[in-house]
Automatic annotation (TrEMBL), chains A, B:
InterPro entries the UniProt entry points to: Asp_decarboxylase_pyridox, PyrdxlP-dep_de-COase, PyrdxlP-dep_Trfase, PyrdxlP-dep_Trfase_major, PyrdxlP-dep_Trfase_small
Family classification: Belongs to the group II decarboxylase family.
Modified residues (N6-(pyridoxal phosphate)lysine): K339
GO molecular function: carboxy-lyase activity; pyridoxal phosphate binding
NCBIfam families cross-referenced by the UniProt entry: NOD_PanD_pyr
Recorded GO CC terms: cytoplasm
Source species of the chain: Rheinheimera mesophila
Any one GO BP annotation for this protein: carboxylic acid metabolic process
Protein name (Swiss-Prot/TrEMBL): Putative pyridoxal-dependent aspartate 1-decarboxylase
Entry-linked Pfam families: Pyridoxal_deC
Keywords per UniProt: Decarboxylase, Lyase, Pyridoxal phosphate
Amino acid sequence: MTELNKRQATASEEALWRIFTVPEAPDSTLSIIEQNISQNLAGFLRESIVAVEKPLWQIERDFQAHQIPSEPKFVSDYAEQMMEKLVAHSVHTAAPSFIGHMTSALPYFVLPLSKMMVGLNQNLVKIETSKAFTPLERQVIGMMHHLVYGEADSFYKKWMHSANHSLGAFCSGGTIANITALWIARNRLLKAEGEFKGVAKEGLYRAMKHYGYEGLAILVSERGHYSLGKAADILGIGREFLIPVKTDANNKVQSAEMRRISRELNEKNIKVMAIVGVAGTTETGNVDPLNDLADLAAELGCHFHVDAAWGGATLLSEKYRHLLSGIERADSVTIDAHKQMYVPMGAGMVVFKHPSSAHAIEHHAEYILRKGSKDLGSQTLEGSRPGMAMLVHACLQVIGRQGYEILINRSLDKARYFASLIQEHSEFELITEPELCLLTYRYVPAEVQRAMALASAEKRQKFNELLNGLTKFIQKTQREEGRSFVSRTRLKPERYQRQDTVVFRVVLANPLTTDQILLDVLEEQQQVAALDKEFLPKLLQLAKDSTA
Amino acid sequence: MTELNKRQATASEEALWRIFTVPEAPDSTLSIIEQNISQNLAGFLRESIVAVEKPLWQIERDFQAHQIPSEPKFVSDYAEQMMEKLVAHSVHTAAPSFIGHMTSALPYFVLPLSKMMVGLNQNLVKIETSKAFTPLERQVIGMMHHLVYGEADSFYKKWMHSANHSLGAFCSGGTIANITALWIARNRLLKAEGEFKGVAKEGLYRAMKHYGYEGLAILVSERGHYSLGKAADILGIGREFLIPVKTDANNKVQSAEMRRISRELNEKNIKVMAIVGVAGTTETGNVDPLNDLADLAAELGCHFHVDAAWGGATLLSEKYRHLLSGIERADSVTIDAHKQMYVPMGAGMVVFKHPSSAHAIEHHAEYILRKGSKDLGSQTLEGSRPGMAMLVHACLQVIGRQGYEILINRSLDKARYFASLIQEHSEFELITEPELCLLTYRYVPAEVQRAMALASAEKRQKFNELLNGLTKFIQKTQREEGRSFVSRTRLKPERYQRQDTVVFRVVLANPLTTDQILLDVLEEQQQVAALDKEFLPKLLQLAKDSTA
């Protein structure tokens, strides 16, 4: 090495050491960005995220390089670049007028707490790298368990911190939570018996031969979340054995139909491994008849799982928790704290009715996750994990039951208010009523509504197709304009003869969404509709011809 | 509602709104904590985490309540409480003298960036809730792919942003990454053929019947990570079909033995589904002979996965990447950025040699993750996920190849230096040499070493048992004293006749660990050893008797 090279090496080494030892200066670009976030998150998001949409292919051009850059970069340069290329083209999920997603505004205190979590950088897989974070996570799971099952004090005293038991698992999200629950269901069903050492050890093929089944099945509403398909695939059940069961006019699974299917399967020697109830469907927000499903699961002697990833937070409301009645009979329940519990992304949970459920998936390594240790990693699907439970803990403590009561009730009441606005409005049609805080609707000019009411089935179909085009146009234009956002989905409502019907989908969980914003959204949609040159004129013409 | 109740409701509602709308005051408890973290993270951790260990049962008393508190709590009260009950009893994973974990110091800039990530609260499952974060994540995966496979520019131009392909998957951690890789291996092996629609659709039982196998197997070193057992379980392969293969004196898997086992399995009609190479074993840090394993995988026509969760970062060093030679022949590779890449917890990745690998696990929902969309969620195990890729992106840009070259080389060189210190020291024994930056050793008084050299096999066993007790005592006492930390594990070294041997385990990835700290660790261990009243006297007596 030449003297010059050596000096350069030393200089760059020193620069490198600085990023580990010297804090960001208070007047650095990144510090200023951080202050903006800390002092006015909503303002930061509003001002930093560009309103007008840039096509994806243009955004991709900024993320085209495939080689890790050779030269280090100054943090300030990087921060500036990211503001322009990343933040500007991200999604304002917290905006009170963006009522199409399940994410909402966040309480301010989660920001500094997140930094604390990252700075502490604990690893929850084992107590050796998490210490107090392990009992904290067990407490969070215990509280969620109590929210669902409400067992006696003695129950929690006995099990919450018991080394070889768990009341649930903290997960990165609802998908892992659902898979964990169904993994347990599979392993409990195909347990060791006689010479057979159980599916966990011997695998599914031998398990099926031992038990003499021709197949396993999972029954769920046709509105079940797609993560259940992943579970059926990864667990070796097969996607075709995740059986979608028809829903009624209110998007609730028909339990009689489920019973009929279970009999059919039984005749084919296909064992129903689990029934999944949905407590808040992703698209319409409806809750399955959980008590009926619990009855059926008991009849069939199978696992009963409830996917309440989104709707589970409703249990925090004394006023509305009856909507999820029967959930306490489930063997396992998924709840995502990053949906209606106001926690940032990455906080899924599954709770188990029985503290020994997770024994079915328990695993030990020879020298970590030892039997009798309190390492959380021995009963979870994931391994190394961050201390996200801390943010759920914080929200539960700072907001409290009283706070959640107000927040959840406000959301559900607001959805009912918005539904009434839509119903009273001559130019809109409510498609699904809000059972929780999710509803769907569409824009239909009054004269079209009148014409449709009188039209033949054939003609109604024609109307519907044009309305689908118009709904898509409105949703897309509104999103691109960037002032407000509703999502859209496609339903087959019974009262429209199960025709494909494109609808606006609205989730009202953001506490900052005001009544005025809801009025404005409808107002904007009407204005946008008037801009459509393709579907609207045809619709009006068709209406005119029909009533002529 | 009485007037008073109404007024109270309004007051508590207002308090609630404030947490969403009013930032933490600069002089609030939480803000002050945050400033401390931002200005002096190492100091904050040093001062906030109590050095002396508190028994777990005492910590648990602070996390005993199982009911979500009814009353909301002031953020400042909560923050104070958490400092005392949580932070004080967490683990100082970033301390330069804590060289027993795979976590290390973090660069300062990840702290404000984490806050930005949380504040933006994007959801990477679909482009609609992530926008520019999706191309960013694809770029990070592309860069890691290039690091492993080094394909031509045209390859990345074609595939990196291709809607229906993926060069890898970003995961919460290495466990999910390994499971994803083996899920793909299983589904590719048991693919659709003729009437059979593939394991994903029809399940494992029908797949096995269709292909006529009696079982599936995964071959891996006996030093393989326990996450592979989870993978074998959840995928329905069975833990008994994850076959541990003997390692040589250097803790590298014996590929000849693996070949022999694969022949035996073949005779039993058990199909080898995948071979897993370990690039950096958790306990000894050794790398399997990857080229030999690639040859064998090619012979057997099976998937070749490399678990480089910990060691993969070594590829960032031009000087040392040859140690992982053959990794570029793997079908899939796991690398955790939260280990040696200086990213906070929660950043696992798996890269795929073939851009269409993930087709085997692809899934679409009817209205999201549509075919042709760029939604990342259609080819990942997880669903909703945070924008953690941003922190990997930042580290790759800010540290750059040159920076990582220095960091990685320093770690490996430091491990070699520490090994030489141990070897030269008359009272210590190096058990495994550092191939990457992990080594194991133990304390053995010089006279005991001399006596052992001359002792019979039986007597050596007696020595060894006493040494195991002493090693545990030293490690435990050192941890409880809180000045420094090494971990411990149990090996069966060939040169000790494969007797159970308890050892100190050290990972030298923290750039702030100085040579002096390493000297101090040995010094402290010697001092602690002298405090032992149980094993040390017996050892010395035994040595005396032996040489008498």
